[in-house]
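R.M. (postdoc): so does anyone remember the format we settled on? I'll just put the structure tokens first.
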């Protein structure tokens, strides 16, 4: 898929938003950021979901050591170099500093401070209990007040409810798209584009979904079915190509760009009955059990999800399913759990490749060899 055209179109889209008087609020792409609040306040939420390369990573080393998460390095590198494809970064008005992980908070603070982008704060608990839910709601209230101060007016309850409904419908459509049997590369491109633009392209996604269902083709009969878990594949990352060139096809993205995003739905009955939209967002945070901000049960929940999907897929298709656990180098969240996840799943007969890498071009050959060997091993196993 041609990401250069996607980024060019997105630049024009953001400039139109600016001409309409919208302010752009950017943040490093992870879950639990309340995009509905940003939207209801009259801003556009811009998720940094762009992969790096050697130049972007190297240019970040004036600010953070090379032992920092390669994705966080790349985010800093984008602002340091400002490649032509990413000129839309010039229109950012505010940057959210959040604490999804250590690299996230460090990179966010550096981007805000050294590239002169006013910061907004939004912090959350790593644990899931009643106290963490109460804390999350307090952060929502604080974040809402920050947005209201910028706009000079209150965010109306009805406006926030409408935004929540809009995003809920949007995620339901993405969930439908994920279930259509298309090539993993195409599915990832659609998910990336959708999450980048948000509900502004809901009608386009609905049309794509309808057309795809009416023209279902089986393009992957000779490919090995793959479930991707761990770190997301971001825009301009070549990993999806290596997997497909090696004979694999990702049929399920158990990552932030994928299942963890579109599965965070709010039931219609709650949408219609609730008088407190902040409580709806808090309840969604509480029920987001597949987020790695779900200590102590995140790993067990993730393993259970993969096992259930594997069993359902094997029963429905009769085909084997391999798991690639994608670990961006120095991503402590994913790396620290990788051995346990692999051992647990392989004990259940599910083959797992822990694939740790950065965005260096030099390791492309190594990645290709490891992926091909894993797919060949899948062929030999019963």
């Amino acid at each position: 898929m041609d990401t250069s055209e996607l980024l060019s179109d997105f630049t024009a889209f953001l400039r139109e938003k600016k001409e309409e008087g919208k302010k752009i609020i950017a943040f490093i792409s992870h879950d639990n950021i309340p995009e509905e609040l940003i939207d209801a306040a009259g801003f556009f939420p811009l998720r940094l979901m762009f992969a790096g390369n050697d130049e972007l990573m190297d240019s970040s080393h004036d600010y953070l050591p090379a032992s920092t998460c390669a994705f966080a390095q790349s985010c800093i590198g984008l602002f340091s170099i400002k490649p032509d494809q990413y000129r839309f970064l010039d229109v950012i008005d505010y940057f959210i500093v959040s604490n999804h992980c250590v690299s996230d908070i460090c990179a966010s603070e550096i981007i805000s401070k050294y590239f002169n982008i006013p910061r907004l704060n939004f912090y959350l608990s790593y644990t899931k209990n009643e106290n963490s839910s109460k804390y999350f709601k307090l952060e929502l209230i604080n974040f809402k007040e920050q947005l209201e101060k910028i706009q000079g007016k209150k965010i109306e309850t009805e406006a926030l409810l409408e935004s929540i409904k809009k995003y809920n419908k949007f995620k339901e459509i993405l969930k439908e798209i994920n279930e259509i049997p298309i090539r993993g590369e195409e599915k990832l491109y659609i998910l990336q584009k959708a999450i980048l633009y948000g509900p502004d392209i809901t009608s386009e996604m609905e049309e794509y979904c309808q057309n795809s269902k009416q023209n279902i083709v089986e393009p992957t009969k000779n490919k090995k079915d793959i479930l991707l878990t761990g770190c997301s594949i971001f825009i301009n990352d070549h990993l999806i190509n290596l997997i497909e060139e090696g004979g694999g096809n990702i049929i399920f993205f158990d990552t932030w760009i994928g299942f963890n995003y579109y599965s965070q739905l709010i039931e219609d009955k709650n949408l219609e009955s609730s008088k407190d939209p902040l409580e709806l967002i808090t309840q969604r945070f509480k029920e987001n059990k597949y987020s790695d901000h779900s200590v102590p049960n995140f790993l067990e929940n993730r393993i259970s999800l993969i096992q259930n999907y594997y069993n359902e897929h094997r029963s429905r298709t009769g085909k084997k399913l391999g798991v690639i656990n994608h670990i961006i180098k120095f991503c402590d969240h994913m790396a620290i759990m990788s051995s346990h996840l692999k051992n647990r799943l392989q004990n259940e007969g599910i083959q797992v490749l822990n694939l740790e890498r950065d965005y260096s071009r030099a390791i492309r050959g190594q990645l290709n060899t490891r992926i091909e060997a894993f797919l060949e091993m899948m062929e030999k196993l019963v």
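R.M.: ...and that's the designed sequence above, right after the tokens. Also worth knowing: The first strand starts at residue 23 and ends at 28. The chain has two domains: 3-155, 164-380.
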